[in-house]
Design goal:
The complex is a heterotrimer. By secondary structure, chain A is an all-alpha fold. Helix content of chain A is 37%, strand content 2%. Chain A folds into two domains: 14-65, no CATH class; 79-206, no CATH class. Chain A has helices at residues 14-23, 57-65, 79-85, 90-93, 108-115, 123-134, 156-161, 166-170, 187-197, 203-206, and strands at residues 4-6, 49-50. In chain A, helix 5 crosses helix 6 (123-134). Chain B is α/β, with parallel strands linked by helices. Chain B has four domains: 3-111, ADC-like domains (N-terminal domain of TfIIb); 121-192 and 395-564, Rossmann fold (3-Layer(aba) Sandwich); 196-388, Dimethylsulfoxide Reductase, domain 2 (3-Layer(aba) Sandwich); 596-736, Beta Barrel (Barwin-like endoglucanases), CATH 2.40.40. In chain B, helix 6 links the parallel strand 10 and strand 11. In chain B, helix 4 (169-182) packs parallel to helix 15 (507-517). The longest helix of chain B is centred in the N-terminal third of the chain and has 17 residues, at 137-153. Chain B is globular and about 75 Å long. Chain C is of the alpha+beta class. Chain C has one domain (16-235): Alpha-Beta Plaits (2-Layer Sandwich), CATH 3.30.70. Chain C is built from six helices and eleven strands. The longest helix of chain C has 14 residues, at 163-176. The termini of chain C are far apart. The chains are: A mainly alpha, B alpha/beta, C alpha+beta. Chains B and C meet through strand 3, strand 4, helix 1, helix 2 and helix 6 of B and helix 1, helix 2, strand 2, strand 3 and helix 5 of C.
């Protein structure tokens, strides 16, 4: 396929370029890494820039009030099956929680540890295998997290070390199919526990 | 749910792998299965080597998982990749010692630059029009092979030429060997601020054709002739580390810095004593100081050994270079000359260093010899606190240099059949950096086939017929052997810190592949498939240094192989040349028409202009002027007053060879008859950040050369100034601050 | 098991401070770019920079003295002084600028409503406002540090002594039940400083490098007569 590339002989001012990009109305905030991004990444339009600007007024309002649609998952995953029946611990799939800030959502390679051989007759597993064959992740949607504007930098590791059980903040996931937002992570929720456990209530313990 | 039905699969336009104009607004982009097993939020630190200057500082690279936009089989999506996030100095590396300079910190932007070339390109428009089409690697390499095979068929192997900036290390050896085995000449090296004059002088004076290493940490007195050793010259990080220790690293002992220069440099600002000097007379000052030292009886002429015997009149104590005569030549008072000399001789260990403007004169070589002799006189060569020469590690390739850029251009311009049929350009930019009188752009027009490996379009690579973009340094196996900056023997090596972002290929690997696929194979053939193989074969046979028997494994882990060595004394006693006099520097331009000396200097942000594409460096406030995103010219306050020029006014600088505009900066640290201008801006083609910004002082330089070495004497041009109307778009950071200059606070 | 993470109320275990040895500083500005690389400081571009909107959490000032030929220059790196009596704190209507128990002047981005009074009050001019939403032309955004917030339009920002590194070091030390070792925790500027002029550490530890340097007879505080009580000591040049 032939493509044309024309070099810029007269430099376009950098700010002019970004002004043009913004004017397209399509600039979007996008999660720049699973590490600390709280909400599912969204992209719109044709921008070649990354910016915290919202894609629309609606998005800004939703972020401000913390409104979120319930997550919809590509595959009808059941925590109950995997936790209660199979007996997997939370950190089998969410292995980041003990060692770093983000618990993480499992990549398909984790699923394949079992499902390359187990449950091959199940329709959901077949969907999973098709993804694997196409080189595409299932695309799980995050259930917990905060909008970037709250500037919350939650870190699982010190909580894990302190012995805070996963269910304390995520509810009893072992009864759920796909994870549901069983616990509202308001600031009060966090601060109450911090006060009780005599953990730091400095703003900068979490907001920095 | 079949995610793919949610997207229109659009063919990518423009630059390859980055996402521009794709994606369905309502849905998440698809996420591809990653190639690597990564835990979010966790960092790893991997070794690296900074490529931006020739110091070769060892790095550690912070690498973390992140989401990169990619296109796979025509489908846009994201994939989690290991991404470099931050560069730091490698604490174990003998050159960087855990530190990293301003430019090294910005180097990460090379990898993530939005204007990086992402795939091979073939020219479709007129040469220089910047019109290219994307081609596959197979097609691109096929085309290059055709060209090289044709050279061989015609028996014209010697018409393959490679143009490069650096020739060191195993990469340099591979490139040189490739050319030699093909039958082509040695690489042509083009560097704007090369240090060949100093290397030649060090070879003559001491037997080391090499840049010096300054043992500042143990020095008590440093006398610098124009050397910006804390800024842009030689091995800045190592020199800064040592300087800090020279000042405050030894309780009760504080070394002193005297800087002799025409313009207050970033280094000169740190001096205990700043000595302005008439341009081109630094050599005369060095001899004047030597005269005083010998006359005082503090030293004898014979103490300078071989280095002294290279100077006419040395053994008689340089009778012509009295303090009075030195004052007449240099403008520095005779009493000051005496004091500077005696302090240098008596407050040892002392060391003198010369670089930059003083060597870029028509008398550059004798100047360097004079300073070398001064060092030898006080016994600073090969001794602690003085100047030493970095030992070479085993398996260091011998330096190979071809003809000079100017000579190559001249030969092509002679007309007739071009002596260069296929030119390979390895990331150097002579169209920007060479004086117009060399007519490099015109010469390149006469080359039938040009291939560029550079990762960006610049004034030179835009002339290419075929572009085979190299990986960035973080995506590639890299190696480096430092010429200076350490007393250890060092061979740095680093594996790729991350996988390539784009469809680029490592240039040494491309050469190896070309070598394998020529119609008539190279003889002897290279035994390695990849550059990594070559590096392994070199490193695994290096001597153990206490890290265990797996030398290759240990080297990969810590960023290289290094070994402490004893300081080497200068070689031999018989000089390798006849004694030279100290001629006056010759300047281009009649002083009546061109009243000012013109000093272009390597800028803190961009060095020779090769870093102007990095936005962090454009936004860096120059430390002495605070200018950002700008060109400027420095004018003495009295001169500015006399000419009616204020800060920011647009002026025109005219030499006998051209004219450029620039805004003025009223600059206290420069003589009334000198004007200075940083090099780096004035690119016509060099990414969105540098293109069309500012002016290039190199464009008005006279093609004068230093006679001994043939190197461009870039500080020997005279100019005049004209005030143009209006403002010159000077952007200062200091101008935005409320506070005024404080005195004594 | 309750770990002592040194963040409990009463006496703070750490008090962060810095020393700047001006006799070592060479004006190389490695600190300037190291900081912006670590802290996701946005690049303003030429037009915004011309409107005084460039952001440099740390800058190197230069003071010219004298007239040619007797000219001197002195460098001075300036960044948030984390003042114990910070003028920026009482003026913030939303408590976005407040003093932590470890002696830092914290900037809490989600509280900031952009009155810019703090920048107005700061005598060191080290506070910077985001007049625009920052923009990174892709793929420059891949370099962004996930441990540091991206500040949106309308929010003030400044040097934090690399609080993300401080918090990480405290978690590590807490996990091992030890104190943070002197010299192990460094903000980006001090880590890169080529002449070792910038030193960071715990002023509550009298043997730490920063404490010892702060006691130097060469030591002074910037604008000390204003009563801001900075946590940074500058050691003067000895010439």
């Amino acid at each position: 396929m032939k493509k044309k590339i024309t070099s810029r002989r007269r430099g376009v001012g950098w700010a002019a370029l970004s002004a043009v990009a913004l004017a397209l109305g399509g600039v979007a905030w996008s999660g720049f890494g699973v590490g600390q991004s709280p909400a599912p990444p969204q992209r719109t339009g044709s921008s070649g820039v990354f910016t915290p600007a919202h894609a629309s007024v609606g998005e800004a309002i939703r972020h401000f009030f913390g409104l979120r649609e319930p997550a919809s998952q590509p595959i009808a995953f059941s925590h109950q099956v995997h936790v209660e029946e199979v007996g997997l611990g939370c950190d089998f799939c969410h292995d980041g929680a003990s060692v770093g800030p983000a618990a993480g959502l499992p990549g398909i390679e984790t699923c394949m540890l079992c499902h390359s051989g187990v449950g091959l007759d199940l329709p959901e597993v077949q969907v999973l295998l098709r993804h694997r064959d196409e080189g595409i992740e299932p695309g799980w949607e995050r259930v917990y997290g905060w909008p970037e504007e709250s500037h919350v930098r939650f870190n699982h590791r010190p909580h894990y070390i302190r012995g805070v059980g996963c269910a304390s903040c995520h509810g009893d996931v072992s009864r759920m199919g796909a994870a549901e937002r069983a616990v509202e992570h308001t600031m009060a929720f966090c601060v109450d526990c911090h006060e009780q456990e005599q953990a730091s209530n400095e703003c900068t313990a979490c907001h920095y | 749910m079949d995610r793919r039905r949610f997207f229109k699969v659009t063919a990518a336009t423009g630059a390859g792998a980055t996402l521009a104009g794709c994606g369905n607004p309502e849905n998440q982009l698809i996420r591809f299965i990653p190639d690597e097993r990564l835990t979010p939020g966790l960092s790893e630190w991997k070794p690296g080597i900074c490529p931006l200057c020739d110091a070769g500082c060892g790095l550690i690279v912070r690498v973390m998982p992140g989401d990169a936009e990619v296109i796979r089989e025509g489908q846009a999506g994201i994939v989690r990749k290991s991404l470099a996030k931050k560069l730091e100095g490698n604490p174990e590396h003998p050159v960087s010692q855990g530190r990293l300079c301003v430019r090294g910190q910005a180097a990460i932007q090379v990898t993530y630059h939005p204007d990086r070339l992402t795939q091979p390109l073939r020219r479709v428009g007129a040469r220089g029009s910047g019109q290219f089409e994307a081609v596959s690697w197979d097609d691109a390499l096929g085309e290059l092979l055709d060209q090289l095979d044709a050279l061989r068929t015609d028996g014209q192997e010697d018409r393959l030429t490679l143009l490069t900036r650096k020739t060191g290390g195993q990469r340099g050896r591979l490139v040189a060997d490739f050319l030699a085995r093909f039958g082509g000449p040695a690489p042509v090296v083009f560097e704007v601020f090369g240090d060949d004059v100093l290397r030649r002088a060090n070879d003559a004076s001491f037997g080391f054709r090499q840049l010096p290493t300054l043992d500042l940490a143990r020095s008590m007195h440093v006398l610098s002739f124009g050397a910006d050793f804390l800024g842009t010259w030689n091995s800045p990080v190592a020199q800064n580390v040592a300087y800090g220790d020279m000042r405050q690293g030894r309780p009760g002992r504080r070394g002193r810095l005297v800087q002799v220069e025409t313009r207050m440099s970033q280094t000169g600002a740190n001096a205990d004593e700043w000595v302005p000097i008439r341009p081109g007379t630094e050599g005369a000052l060095a001899l004047g100081l030597a005269h005083v030292i010998m006359e005082s009886g503090a030293r004898e002429s014979g103490d300078a050994g071989r280095a002294g015997r290279l100077i006419e009149g040395w053994s008689e104590g340089l009778p012509a270079h009295t303090p009075e005569e030195t004052e007449r030549l240099t403008g520095i008072g005779r009493d000051r000359v005496r004091r500077l000399a005696l302090e240098f001789a008596e407050n040892g260990p002392s060391v003198a260093v010369v670089a930059g403007g003083p060597l870029a004169q028509t008398n550059g070589f004798p100047t360097a010899l004079a300073v070398n002799a001064l060092n030898a006189l006080v016994g600073s060569v090969g001794r602690p606190g003085g100047l030493v020469f970095t030992p070479a590690p085993p398996a260091a390739p011998a330096a190979v240099r071809g003809e000079a850029m100017a000579a190559m251009a001249a030969r092509i311009l002679e007309g007739g059949d071009s002596p260069v049929r296929v030119l390979l350009v390895d990331d150097t930019n002579p169209v920007f950096g060479a004086p117009p009188a060399w007519r490099v752009a015109e010469a390149l027009e006469g080359v039938p086939f040009i291939v560029s490996f550079g990762p960006f379009l610049d004034e030179t690579s835009v002339l290419a017929d075929l572009i085979l973009p190299d990986h960035s340094f973080l995506e590639s196996w890299v190696d480096h052997i430092p010429e200076s900056g350490t007393t250890s023997a060092v061979a740095s090596v680093a594996a790729p810190a991350m996988r390539p972002l784009h469809d680029t290929r490592s240039m040494p690997d491309v050469l190896l592949e070309i070598g394998r696929n020529l119609a008539r194979p190279l003889a002897p053939a290279f035994p390695w498939t990849t550059f990594e193989d070559m590096l392994r074969s070199v490193f695994e046979v290096l001597p153990e240094t206490g890290e265990g028997w797996d030398v290759w494994g240990a080297s990969r882990e810590r960023g290289g192989w290094w070994r402490d060595e004893a300081l080497r004394a200068p070689l031999g006693t018989n000089p390798s040349g006849s004694a030279v006099g100290m001629p006056d520097a010759v300047f281009d331009g009649d002083p009546a028409d061109y009243p000012f000396y013109f000093l272009p200097y390597a800028s803190q942000a961009f060095l020779d202009g090769s870093l102007a594409h990095l936005p962090w460096l454009q936004e860096l406030p120059d430390v002495l002027s605070t200018a950002m995103w700008s060109s400027w010219v420095e004018i003495n306050p009295r001169t500015a007053d006399r000419l009616g020029i204020a800060d920011g006014d647009l002026v025109e600088i005219t030499s006998a060879h051209g004219s450029i505009p620039a805004p003025a900066v009223v600059y206290p640290g420069i003589a009334p008859d000198v004007i200075a201008m940083p090099v780096g801006q004035g690119h016509e083609t060099f990414t969105r950040y540098a293109s069309g910004r500012g002016s290039n002082p190199l464009a008005i330089l006279a093609p004068a050369t230093e006679p001994e070495t043939g190197v461009l004497a870039w500080a020997s041009t005279r100019v005049r100034l004209t005030r143009l109307g209006g403002e010159g778009s000077l952007i200062l950071f200091a101008g935005s601050l409320r506070e005024h200059e404080e005195h004594g606070r | 098991m309750r770990q002592d993470d040194n963040q409990t109320g009463a006496t703070p275990a750490y008090k962060w401070g810095m020393a700047v040895d001006l006799d070592r500083c060479t004006g190389c500005e490695a600190c300037v770019v190291a900081c912006r690389a670590e802290n996701n400081v946005p690049t303003a571009g030429a037009e915004a920079a011309a409107r005084s909107r460039a952001i440099h959490w740390i800058r190197v000032e230069r003071y010219w003295d004298g007239e040619f030929p007797d000219v001197r220059v002195r460098y001075r790196p300036v960044f948030c002084q984390q003042c114990d009596s910070a003028p920026c704190e009482p003026v913030c209507p939303t408590y976005a600028s407040y003093h932590t128990e470890e002696g830092l002047n914290a900037q809490v981005y989600n509280r900031c409503i952009g009155t810019r009074y703090c920048a107005n009050a700061c005598p060191y001019n080290v506070r910077f406002f985001n007049f625009d939403n920052p923009v990174w032309e892709k793929p420059l955004d891949l370099q962004l540090n996930p441990d540091v917030s991206i500040r949106e339009v309308g929010v003030m920002e400044k040097c934090t002594f690399c609080i993300q590194r401080i918090n990480e070091a405290k978690i590590d030390a807490g996990a091992m039940g030890t104190r943070i070792e002197d010299g192990a925790l460094q903000p980006a500027c001090a880590q890169s400083c080529t002449a070792n002029a910038l030193v960071f550490g715990d002023l509550n530890d009298p043997e730490s490098a920063v404490s010892r340097l702060s006691r130097s007879p060469r030591g002074e505080k910037l604008l000390s007569d204003l009563g801001t009580a900075p946590s940074v000591t500058y050691l003067g040049r000895e010439d």
